[in-house]
Amino acid sequence: MATMESLIVTVNRIQRACTVLGDHGGDTNLPTLWEALPSVVVVGGQSSGKSSVLESIVGRDFLPRGSGIVTRRPLVLQLHKTERGLQEYGEFLHLPKKKFTDFSMVRKEIQDETDRMTGKSKQISPVPIHLSIYSPNVVNLTLIDLPGLTKVAVEGQPESIVQDIESMVRSYVEKPNCIILAITPANQDIATSDAIKLSREVDPTGERTFGVLTKLDLMDKGTNAIDVLEGRAYPLQHPWVGIVNRSQADIKKNVDMIASRWKEREFFASSPDYGHLASKMGSEYLAKVLSKHLESVIRARLPGITSLINKSIEELEAELSHLGRSVAVDAGAQLYTILELCRAFDRIFKEHLDGGRPGGDRIYGVFDHQLPAALRKLPFDRHLSLQNIRKVVSEADGYQPHLIAPEQGYRRLIDGALNYFRGPAEASVDAVHFLLKELVRRSIAETQELKRFPTLQAEIAAAASEALERFREDSKKTTLRMVDMESSYLTVDFSRKLPQEVEKEIPFLRLWFIAK
């Protein structure tokens, strides 16, 4: 069975994978895998000693320092305990396989990577920097360092910086799986602490909050923080931990962290105020408490995390199944895939034409309803009126009147009548063309295999449109040619049998007698 330490390492790997995939929490209200992973978030005001606490836990001087907002992007700090004797090193997620054994270069890379995202301005960004530190002097632990809370914007900062930082910090600490490490300087009134105020709002019971008092050695002479450390001034469900950071003089002298830890232990052991709490004070004790608590939280949340991962895997597998199998890279296999997709489209298109899917009935309706209706509206009554018949017959005879029957006259009458068919015939071709284009569009949309290939969809649509346009022109020529053929083959017998759908049906023979 996996140990709790290996579980912390596994959670660290999942967090790194989430960041690579764009899921880094903090800036979204949507539930994500990142939000389900327990983590320790470091919260405090500017100059509260956040950076010094983190460096004390790590045992290395590696964080940027300066005035104003130094931390402008979340820093996900993952600590990995290694065997004794192995060299310490840091590794960034954005620089895989590059080991930093010089921790001053780690500090420089944090600053450079921050500037790459935010520029040289004082802007902040929610995109985290991932730093893993491998050392025999740390415990397995994940900490997230956030920009320090501030009350006013200084020169070079946008007016919204105060609200922007608070919104970013809230987006982390409001999550139920977040463990809050509230950093407060001991030489400041606990009632005015930004970290405690915020943690009280998001965690009123104090169940998720660890209180840390820094700068105990800088308190006024004759004062102490016993009431806070023993939980009387501001009680929490977890005990308060006091920290003594390196002084500014020690930082300038480059006093290493090992010596700083020794001085911290000596301070609490020799202090008349805190001596009885010495075993539960200091950065080393804080790291062990946080690691143990993180292990217990992971143990409690493990079923939910496993369920969420399994659910995400099922959803992704379902989406992959919906998208279809992978496409081969060689040209022959790709051509075969394209032909298979075209056959799938062709099958759907035929179903629309032949039945099984709607569409073919509308094409039949063009010939069964639309064309007859258009023919019935043709002006045959005007064309075959007595006045027009006399006019056509007279014009056809010219200066030589007919002897028996006005053959040229009735040929012109029928030829003129048949020419009326041209308009409805061409309109029928256009109507069928429109319906076929619509069926092509619907068939492409209904071909599931094509959904993952939008470019191929567009190519099929373009090829079909081009072919239908060409077919439309050919069909119009054929249709008009058929009308011309009918008008060129007229006999007396044909004219006698030709029914005329006019208000008063008048046989052509009777028309001839009337004309006479």
TrEMBL record:
Catalytic activity of the protein: GTP + H2O = GDP + phosphate + H(+)
Alphabetic keyword roster: Cytoplasm, Cytoskeleton, GTP-binding, Hydrolase, Microtubule, Motor protein, Nucleotide-binding
Any single GO CC term annotated in Swiss-Prot or TrEMBL for this entry: microtubule
Gene Ontology terms, MF aspect: GTP binding; GTPase activity; microtubule binding
Coiled coil region boundaries: none
Stored Gene3D superfamilies: Dynamin, middle domain, P-loop containing nucleotide triphosphate hydrolases
Keyword Cell membrane appears in the UniProt entry: no
Localization in the cell: Cytoplasm, Cytoskeleton
Protein name: Dynamin-type G domain-containing protein
Species annotation: Gossypium darwinii
